[in-house]
Amino acid sequence: MARILMIVAHPDDIDFGSGGSVAKWIAEGDTVDYCIVTDGDAGGFDEAVGRGEMATLRRKEQRAAADVYGVGEIDWLGYPDGRLYVTHELRRDLSRVIRKRRPDRAVVPSPTRNLRSTYGSHPDHIAAGEASMCAIYPDARNPFAHPELLADEGLEAWTVPETWIANPGEGADRYLDITDTIDLKIEALRAHESQTGHMTDLAERMQMWGYSQAKSAGWCDDGTPADQRRYAEGFLVLDTK
């Protein structure tokens, strides 16, 4: 049984990118917690909804989505959506969560821009990924980094043994079969109604994306019949002991 910490920039990032894997891990007995850096207040499509109201709504939606899988705790850092940068304060706040949750595995966004994926290269995603990598090494494991975390909060240094980069594009070296959990992924995404309510083809989008990942893994090909297709999510796995 592993303790897994998912770190992302926005509510719904986990469900779009790694929801099938979260469902799989929890079904296998692992513990999964979330750290979400922003409240997603710049999201949505309804101009009548105030930004403060949107942030509150998105927290509720993310909790509902997490409950579909059985996720444990959600740490919200409350940074402004669309204005995320790698700062000393963000590295400290992520280090705090890592020391508090003490994960065996951290799953984080890619810290590098993928020129073939506009969505995957949202600036907030890249900043969250880079800050997470800085928190994993060297900050969270170094007792002399952010000394207030130990002196004022009693949070001992913690080394994350394994870090998984979510959705690394062509850099993936491990694929998880989410064929049995893709329906839960879609159900969780529907809980983000302010973001997905307009997507009449949400299920088809997620199935095609999962199918493309399964093809990258070599489990399917373009000729695989629809009723025999498998679905996957890809990661780049790093040894960060």
From TrEMBL:
Matching InterPro entries: GlcNAc_PI_deacetylase-related, LmbE-like_dom_sf
Keywords recorded for this protein, A-Z: Zinc
Entry-linked Gene3D superfamilies: LmbE-like
Coiled-coil intervals, chain numbering: none
A GO molecular function held by the record: hydrolase activity, acting on carbon-nitrogen (but not peptide) bonds, in linear amides
Keyword set includes Zinc: yes
Keyword Nucleotidyltransferase applies: no
GO terms classed as biological process: glycoside metabolic process
Top-level taxon in the UniProt lineage: Bacteria
Pfam family, one: PIG-L
PANTHER family noted in UniProt: LMBE FAMILY PROTEIN, N-ACETYLGLUCOSAMINYL-PHOSPHATIDYLINOSITOL DE-N-ACETYLASE-RELATED
Name of the protein this chain belongs to: LmbE family N-acetylglucosaminyl deacetylase
Species of origin: Actinomycetospora corticicola
